[in-house]
Amino acid sequence: MYIAAPSPFGACATDPKGAPCVDALANIQNPFYLGDQPGGTQVSGWLDAWTPAPSAYAVKARSSGDVAAAVNFARDNNLRLVVKGAGHSYQGTSNAPDSLLIWMRAMDKVTLHDAFTPQGCEGKIAPSPAVTAEAGAVWIDLYHAVTSEAGRYVQGGGCADVGVAGLIQSGGFGSFSKGFGTAAAGLLEAEIVTADGVARIANACANPDLFWAIKGGGGGSWGVVTRLTLRTHDLPAFFGGAWGAIKAQSDDAFRGLITRFLAFYADNLFNPHWGEQIALGPDNTLKLFMVCQGLENAQAGAVWLPFFDWVKASPQDFSLSGSHGAGAESGGPFCSKLMRPSLVQKRSRVHTLIAKRSLAAPLRVGFQRSGLSP
Ligand SMILES: Cc1cc2nc3c(=O)[nH]c(=O)nc-3n(C[C@H](O)[C@H](O)[C@H](O)COP(=O)(O)OP(=O)(O)OC[C@H]3O[C@@H](n4cnc5c(N)ncnc54)[C@H](O)[C@@H]3O)c2cc1C
């Protein structure tokens, strides 16, 4: 299907008070909106490095056949080709002026398997529970299908609107990767259209070199991924975390706090249970945003008790914010809270808009010059 790929903010350059600009600015409250625009990028560029620039032409792919047609067309006509999933590239590699865009977003079907065996691996690799996602899916599509609906776990990244194919091809690290490995480590199989326009299956038994290469070489290096199958895991029985903010009263005390925390991390948190982050602030604060899996409430609390006790023992050096602590609760209810219904609704609102747009314009592979192209 051919579409224009204008910048969603193009109208703001000429008429900042007009309805199209006001609409676009209002819509960016929805975290999925930009990723669902063919000319949108989630990153606003890097100063003196790159500036978002929509492609001159775009193909809205609906199948690996569409992707192959676009790859062949670009090769035969010597066009610069870019591929976009959800547009989160920090390096700006999913947009370029004067390019042909293959936009994957409409291919977002997700299918669960009880026992998946990669093609050609029968008798070599034991079947395992898995999930297959078309390459335009974003992580919330998988988290919703795998965890909310099927009560299982799949390792992805922290940001629900990042593209599945883009993250896997960059390796992909998430809050619980110390327990479950990188997202790419869970890849069982992919379908990928290579530069000769052929859709190939890559797994441990078929095209194993390609399979190895797409697990971290960077998006688009080896072809256009159209489908990925990832291993799923039993949902951990417990999820939880640690939270709070500690303010040091002097620079010396802050140095002592950081030293103590790093030793505490090495001894107690550098293991498969704990992930996420801390933040060190210029106002001598250490903020905790940690999560854990596989520990009961009492276990999670016990891990942090000595650290909080150490902080409380020196009130002249440190003050703890009112709300601090560590704990856990059973996996299912915790995930339901994490999968905020509003987030799923926002995703499906944009999803519905896209589906309507597709119905209005029937599927054809072709090209159309965008109004904003250079
Ligand atoms: C807000 C934010 C949060 C993030 N959180 C995490 C995180 O928790 N963990 C983590 O590991 N990373 C994280 N990242 C990094 C992210 O994983 C990478 O930027 C990833 O490449 C984005 O994929 P995308 O589809 O969203 O972006 P895009 O810009 O669409 O694609 C990224 C690259 O992959 C290529 N590509 C996309 N789809 C395909 C395809 N189907 N076939 C071939 N090439 C393709 C594009 O051409 C581009 O080069 C985050 C990035 C942002 C901006």
Measured distance between first and last alpha carbons: 22 Å
Number of helices: 11
The distinct ligands, each listed once, are: flavin-adenine dinucleotide
What would the average pLDDT be, to the nearest integer?
89
- Spans of at least 5 consecutive residues with low confidence: 351-374
What is the molecular shape?
globular
Number of strands: 16
What is the number of domains?
3
Largest pleated sheet = 5 strands, antiparallel
CATH topology label of the largest domain? Uridine Diphospho-n-acetylenolpyruvylglucosamine Reductase, domain 3
Please sum up the structure shown.
The chain has 374 residues and is an alpha+beta fold.
